[in-house]
Amino acid sequence: MGPEARFLAGCPRALLVAGVLLAWSAGLRPVGVSRGAPAPPSRLSSPQAPRRLVVQHASYGVPGHPRRMRDVTAIVRTLLRRGERMFLVDKVTQLAGDPAPGVVKTLAVTYTLNGRTLVTKATDGEIFYFRGMTALRSATGYRDVASGQEKGVRIIVSSQDFGVGAMGAQQAAHRLNQGIFVPNEPPSAGWMSNRFQHLPQWVWIHFPGPRRINKVLVYAATLASAPVDFSGQYSPDGGADMRTLFHVTGVKFNPRNYSCTVSFKPVVTSNFRLLITRVAASAPPWSNIVELAQVKVYGVNATGSGFGRDRRVGRWIGHQPAQRLDIPLHPTDFKPTVRYRGDTVTVGDRWYRLVLSQRRPEIMFLSWDALGQGELNVNFLHPSGAEPVLDPLFPHADRSRIPDRKSKTAAASAALIQRGNIFAYRRVQIAPGAWERVSIRADRRGFDLGLAAVADRKIAMRGGLFRFHFAANQTPTTFICRPPKLINYVQSPCYLDAPDFGTAYVTTTGDRCAFYRTPSSLFPASTYWVDITPHRPVAEDGINELSPRGWHTVVRFAIQSPEPLPALVSRNPRLKRLPKYALNGVQFRPDTGILSNSVMSVDCGLSLLFYAQEALFVPHLKDGISPMGLVEESVERYFHGAPGYYMPDDNVCAPGWSSSRETAAYLVISGWYCIRTIGGMKLLQRWLQPLQCLANHIASHFHRDGLIYQHGPGMWFDCYNIHGADAYSNAADYWAFRCMNDLETLAGRPELARRYRSDARRIKAVYFKLFYDPRTGVLAGWRTKAGRLHDEMFPWANGFAICQKGLVTRKAARAIMRRMLAQLHKIGFHSCQFGLPTNLIPMSPKDYIPNTSGAPRQANGMDTWQVYMNGGATPAFEYYFIQALYKVGLRADAERLLWPLVKSYGQGTFNAGIGLPGQRQRNPVGSAFYLWNGSRASGEGYLPEDWDGVEAIFTGYYGLGFDKNGYYLENWSPLKGQTVKLDLPYMGKMIAAIR
C-alpha cells in the first residue's frame, strides 16, 4: 500500500488514538475508524459552536455500574469551546482515562439547544455529534458529499439485483445512500449487485460540481459480502479515462458497525468510483455478489484550478469530427420489393419485411418467414422500433441542446436516400460530440445493417450504438449462440430465433461488435432492449466507448430454414412447417446465462429437463452452436448457485441447498444428457462433485418405506397441495440415480456406481406397489406417510413413470394407459389439439392450494373444472404420455394425440406472445392451459416446455432411442433395417448414421 492510502478497519482501540474521523449524516448515527495524521484545520475543523448550545452533563463509562462511570462534563465543554461538535468517543478516553479497560463504554451527554433539552449517546469507536446542529451541513463545509441529501448527486452501479422468488416482481432501483443503516439489521436502503454477474462490481458517484475529496467511508450490508479488495477511482473525462486514488487488499471491516475507512491524498474531481474486485465470501454465488449499505465520500466544494474536467466540454456542440462516416455497404443486383407510403418505406421479399422511417434512422417493423411463404404480418419490434442510441454514463447538461431524433429538425438532416437496394440515412448526432450513420442493404433471403459512428473524443457509454426493442408480447425473439463468456453479451456468429416464424443466422464484418442485452427484472422483464455495441466487451457492466477513431460494422441477417434430421422429416408433409417452430423450446436469457421460462421470465430449474430433451433432436446449426451447449451453461450456473424458481442463492453442495421436488433430479439428468452428447469425459470430471452433491441430497430424503419424501408442495404443478412422496418426482429420482450409476461407472468409481444403482433399485422395488391405486387403476399422484393416496388420475405422472426403464412392467403399463384412454373418453375430452388435461378427475379443494388460479371451492371440484391446473388442457408433459403409448404398443392411440398437436405447433397455437403489463398480446387467447373448447387460456403466454412434444416425432413416431451407449432404433421403429442419417453428437463426437 502506498503512502497516499492510509487504511484502518476493525483495529484495536489503542490505534484509534492516532486520529479522529469527522463524518456526519442527517438522521444516522455515524460510525467508523481511521488513522493517520489529522488533516489541516482549514479543511477538517468544524465551524464554531453557536452559543445557544449548552452542555448540562456528560458521563462516560459502563451504564448501570457507577464505579465504572466518570463525569466528563468539563472535557466535553472544552471540546465544544474548541469547535469540535463531533469527535471520536475514544478522544474522551485519552483525556479522562479509561474507567473500564477492555469493556465497551458509552458517552452520554445532556445538553440544551435553544432551550430544548436533548440527550445523545455514542459508544467506543463511534463518532459523537450533537443532534440538531444542522449548521454542520454547510454547503461548503467538510461533509459527506455523496449523501442522498446532497442536491444533484447521481449514483450509478455496475449492476443491480432483481426479485427472484415465486414469480418475483421487479426490484426497485438501488437506493444507495438514501436510507438509514443499523448494523445487524436489514438496511432500509442500499445496493446489491446482480447475482448472475461476476466481479468486478462498482458504485460510481457523480457530484453536481467539483469537490475536493480525501476520504471514503464504506458500510457493508453484511460481513459475509463485505468488500475485501477494492480501489478508489475517478475520471476526468466522463468515464473514458480512469485514474486510481488508492487500492487496498485483505480488508477486514469493523465487526461492530460493518464499516471501514480509507484516506487518500486530496483530489479535485466531479466523480468517485469504488471498484470492488473481491468480497469476503469464498464460495459461489456469494463470492460474486456485493452488498453495500452506504458509501460516504468526504470533502468540500472546490472551484478554480485543479478541477479534473474534460477540456473539450466547450466544443461539444457543433464540432464536426474529421472522420467521415462513409456507408460501409455497396449495391448488388438484387431488386427488392419497395413501397413508399407516407413517411415510411417498406422493403423486402417473401422471406422478410422491413418498414423504415423516411424521416429518421429507424426500423419500425421487422418480420421474417423461414419458409418464404410471405407470412410477414407480425412485427417482432416494440412500437419504439430499432434506432441509433448512445447513453453517456453521466450525460452533460448540454445534451438538452441535441435535437430530438424524432423531431422535424432531426428528420430534415437524417432523411432516407435510396440507391438501388441500398437505403441510407444521413448522419445524425446521437450525443454531444458523437454522430452515427445507418444504412440497410436489402438482399436475397436477408438484409444487411450497416453502422458507422464517430466522436470528437472518447465517450464512455453503457450499451449502444444501435438498439432493438423487441416486442415479446408479439413473440419472444431469442438468441441461440455459443455459451457467452460474459453475462449480458452475445457474440456473432449466432442465431436470432423468432418462435413460430423462424430463424436468422447473424454474422458481422468490419469492426468487432457484440449484442448486449440490457439487464432487466426476472418476471416479467420490464424491457427487452438489445444493443449492437462496439468492440469486444471486457466486462459485464455494459460499459463501452466511442472514440475519434470511429467504428464501422455490418451485421448480416440471413433467413434460415433449419430442420432436425432433414433426411427423415423432409419427406413427411405433416412436418413441412417444422422449420418455423423447431427451435421454439430454446429461450435463452443472455442477462442470466440460463435457459429460462422465456426471455422475459424467471429461470426455472424445474423446467430444465424439458429443454435438455428437446436439445437432443434439434436442427444442425453452424459454427458449433448447439442448444445443448446452452443446457450445459444453464446446468453449470445452477451448480454454482444461480437462483431460480423454488431455488436458493446457494451452490448445490451447500448444506442448506433446497429446491422444488424434481429439480435436483432434473439437474442430474440434464447433466447426464450434456456429458453423453457434447461434453464427454472432460465435462464429466468437472461436474462429478456437484452431481454427487445433488444425488446425496435426493438420497437424504429416503423414507423407511423406500420412497423419497420431499418437504413442501413446490414442483412444476405448483398449484397442487402435494404432501408426502409424489409419483412423478420419485420416478425422476429413480432416473437420476440410474444416470449417476452410469456416470460413476464412466468415471471409474465402481463403489459409488454400486451405491447409486442400489438407490435406484430401492425405489424400483416399492414404486408400483405403493403408488398403484386399485380404485382408479392408475398410479396415484402422491402418497402420504400414513399411506393415503391422492389420485385425480394425472396423465403426466403416469406417462413419465412408464417411460422410465424397468419402473413399471409392460403389462401393468399397458393396462394403465388403456385405463387413462377410457377415462379421457368418459369425460368427453376430444380437444387433442390443445394438449391433454392435467387431471382426469376434478381436483379436491384439499389437494389444491387455495386462492391460486383454478383453485376449486366445491367439494367435487367442478366449479373450476378445466381451468388452469384443474383439468386445463396443456401440451406441457404430453410428450411422456404419447411416448408411453408408443412404448406399450398403442401406436394408433399415440398418433391420435401426436398429429393434432403437431398441427397446432404449425399454426402457432401455443405462442400468444408473453403477457406483459400494459401491452397487448398478439393472440390474447393462446397460452399454456386451455378450456377444452379453446375459448379461453391462462398462463404467461409462452412456455418453452409446451414444445417438448416435438420430441415424440423422433423418439415415438420414428422410434429413435438414446441411452448410455448412444443412438439406437426402438423395437417399434418403422426405420428398422434402414440406414438412418443422424449427424448428432455422442460423447463429444458426431455420429453420422445408425442402422
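Next protein, fold it too.
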Amino acid sequence: MSREARLKMERELKEGALPALVGTASLELGIDIGAVDLVVHLQSPKAVAQGLQRVGRSGHLVGQTSKGRIFSTHREDLVEAAAVVRGMLAGDVEATTTPRNPLDVLAQQIVAMVAAREWQVDELLAVVRRAYPYRDLTPRAYQAVLEMVSGRFSSEVHRTLRPRIHWDRVNGRLLALPGSRLQALLDGGTIPDTGSFGAYLPDGKTRIGELDEEFVFETRPGDTFALGSQVWRVLDIDQDRVVVVEAPGAVPRMPFWHGDFPWRPFELGQRVGALRRELVEQLQALRAATGTATFREALNRSDHPAVARAVAGLRDSCALDVNSAAVLLDYVAGQLDGAGAISTDRTVLVEVFDDALGDPRLVVHSPFGGRVNGPWGLALAGALRERTGVQVEVQTNDDGILLRFPEADADFPLDIVGGLGPAEARERVLRELPDSAVFGARFRQNAGRALLLPGRKGGKRTPFWLQRLRARDLLQAVRGFEDFPIVAETYRDCLEDVMDLPHLEQVLGGIERGEIEVVAVESAVPSPVAHSLLRDFINIYMYEWDVPKAERQLQSLSVNRELLQDLLRDVAFDELLRPEALDDLRAHLQHIAATARARTPDELVLALEDLGDLTLEEVEERTTRCASAWLAALESEGRVARVAVRMAGGVEQRWAAAEYAAEYRDAFTGDRGACSRILERYLRVAGPVTVDAIRARYAFPRPWLQAELERLVDERRLAHGSFTPGTSRAVPPAERTDASGGGSGEGTKAAEYVEVTALEQLHRRTLGILRREVQAVPYTVYADLLGRWQHVTPAERLSGLEGLRSVLEQLRAAPIAAQVWERDVLPARLRRYDPADLDALVQGGELVWVFGGGPTRVARGCVSCSAARGGSSSMCRRPTSTSWPRSRVRCMRSCGNRGRYSSPTCATGSEWRRRRSKQR
C-alpha cells in the first residue's frame, strides 16, 4: 500500500478508530502500529522467530505481556504450530546465518566502487575483505568476478556479457567505462524483480497494492478485479503500474500471484520430530496403562487419569486448548494404529501403497522440512531411475517425500532410502540440479543482481518475461564455463539458501551411523500423515494445464538448440537472410557502427581485446577521435603493442592488446595452439567468411586451416554453408573439388563459415527487418492498389481482344448482374470496349456464361463468365427473370463444367446474343 494509506491506518489504529487491522508480513516490519491487545495468527508462523516477532506486536510496552492466538487449518499444521509455540515459550530461536561470499552482490559492488573512482586490484580486494561476508574471499573467486564484469567472457558470448568496467592488467588498475555509473545507480539493489505491477488510484500517488505481471498481461482496460475488500476497474495499464478506480457492484475477477512458499526450517523440523516422539512415548504408556488393543481405544478412555495427564501436559508445554490437545493426540494415535510408526527426529518412516489406478507410491515420512526433503527427493529419484530404469515423479513438502512410478510394474527398492549416504546424495543433487526449474529461477535473480541482465531503460522497466528469456539464453551460453562466477553462486544459493544440503547430509549421516532408524511398512491405504502429501500431489496435477497465457507463450518459445545446430551443416541461407542485416551485424561485431566505436582509450583496449589485431587505418575507423594519440599513450603504458602478422601478401604491422603480443609472435613460428586462438577470435567477429578470406588476413597453412574449421563445425561452434545474401549456393562436402572447400564452375561458390551465435544474431536481425516491412498501409494506398490491379485507373487500362480476355479471366466467377457487364464493368477496364470482341470470344467457345438460382432468390439476373473447359465458376443465384427462358438454355454439363453446382444453367453463342439484345 502507499505510504499515505499506511500512515492513515496506523493513526486510526492508535486512536482506536479501527477495532482491528488485517496484515501479512507487515507485522514483521519495525513500524509503529501503536497499542495492540491481541494478535490473531492464521496457520503456523513456520518459525519460532517469526512467531515471536508477530505475536510480539501486541503488548509492545514495558511491563506488558504479548498475547496471541494461532488458528490451525489442518492436523499437520496443528502439530507444527504446537512445536512453534513450545519453542516460543522456551525462547529457542532458530540460528541466523550470513551468506558467505555472495559473488553476485560482489559484482554489483565492484562496478559501483569503480564507477566512483579508480582502484588498484589488490587495494579493492583488501577493502572487500573487510566486510564480514567476504572475510574469506579467495583471490581466485575475486579474479573470476573481475573477469566477468570486465568483459573477458564477452568474446565467447558476444554482447550478452559486455564489459561493465575496464581491467588494465598491465598496471593492475580498475577503470570505469562510460555508462558504469549510470548502471550502478539504476540497476543496483539486492531485492529480485518479481515482475509485479503497482496498482494506483487516478491521482498517480496512492498505491493500493501490487498485481502479478502475468495477471496484468491477461487484463485489459475496463476489466474489474478484487483487491483487498473492494472491487476495482482498470482505467489504464502503463509500463510498470495499473491505474484503477473503485467499481462497487461489479462482478470481479480474482487476481493471482506467484510467491515463494515459506519452508519449515530444519531446527523447527527437529522440534516437530521431538514433539511427535514424546507423544508416541505418552501414547505407548497410555495404552499400557489402560490395557487396550489400539491407541485410539486408549484415548477414548477419557475418564482415565493418564489421558487427563497427557492432555494437561500439552496444554502446559504447548499452550493448546482442550480440543486442540485432543485432536493432536488422536492424529498421532491414528497414524500409529494405521502404519505402526510415525516419523520423528529419530525415526524415518518409508511407506508403500498403491494409488487408485494401481500405480505404486512410496512416501518417505520426514519432519525435517521442505529444504531438506527437496534435495533428498532429487537424490532418491536419481538413484531409483538408475536402478529401475523408470522415470520417477517426485513431490515434496515439509513432512515428507512422495515418489510415484507411472505405469510401471517394477517394485520400489525399499533399501535405497537407508542405503543413500551423504557423499552419494551430494553428488546426485549436484548432477540433477542444473536441469531443475529452481536453478534457472535463481540464476535469473543472481544475474540481475550482478548487473548482467537488462534493467531500466528510459525510466521503464524491462518486462519480466523478457528478463526470464534473456536469463535462459545467458545460462545456455555460460553453462560451459567452469569458472563462471554466477553459475557457481547459483549452485551455492540453491544448495544452502533454497535447499539445505548441509542438514540433509547431517540426517543421512545419522541414518548411516544408526542414530536415526528407518522403518519400512506396506499398507493397503495411505496413512493419515501420507494424506497431506497426496493432497498436495492432487492440487498440482489437477491444475497442471491451468497456467497463465503468458507462461504458456514463454514455454512455446523454447527451442531445442542441439537439434538446431545439427541442422546447421551445409545449409543455404543466402536466399533467406537480408544483406542489410548482415551489414548491421558486421558493423557491430567489428565495432564500426556509430554506437559501437571506442569513445575512450579504455574502450579502445577492450575493442582490441575483442577483435584481436587491427591496422592503424582500421583502428581509426573504430574510434570517435584521433586514434594515433590514444595508441601512443596506451603503448607507453604497456597496454597495447605492435605485432607482426604474416598474411598472404607478406608481413603487416598491426596493433593488438599487450597480453596477445606473445601469442602473435608464437603463432607464425609454428605454435598451432596460438594459431587456433587467433583464428577463433577472428571468427567470432568476422561474420560469414570463406577459407580464402581467412588466408588473405592470416597466412595459415591451407590443410591445417581446413581441418581446424571442420573441427569447430563438429563441435557445433561454427555453421557451414552459404550465408551471404545474393551469393550462389555453397558447395557441399561431397562436391568439393579442392582443399579449400570451394568448387569451380558456374553457379557455385566457396563455402562459408560463421560462428553459431553470430548466425543467431543475423537470423534475429533479419526477422526484425521483415517484421518492420510487414506493416499495414493506409486505406488510400490500398484503394490505389485495387484500382491498378483491376485496371480501373487510366494508366492501367487494357485494350483489344487480348485485353478483354485478360479482364474476363480476372473477373471469372464473379456474380454480376447481366446488364452491368457491358454498361459498367468492361468499359471501365478497357480503353475502347467493342461488343464484337465479346461476341467473338463467346462464339469461339472460349467463354461460358453461367447463372444459377437458390432458395433465397437474391441477386436476380446475376451471371458469371467461365472458361468453356477447365474453368471454375461461382456460386451465383439462378435468374428468375422471364427474359431468361429456361427452356432455351443448354445444360451446364454440355459446356464442360461437369455440373459443378446444384441447379445451374449456362448459355453460349446466339443464345447469349439474343438475351443481351433483349435486355438492351
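About the second fold: The longest helix spans residues 266-290.
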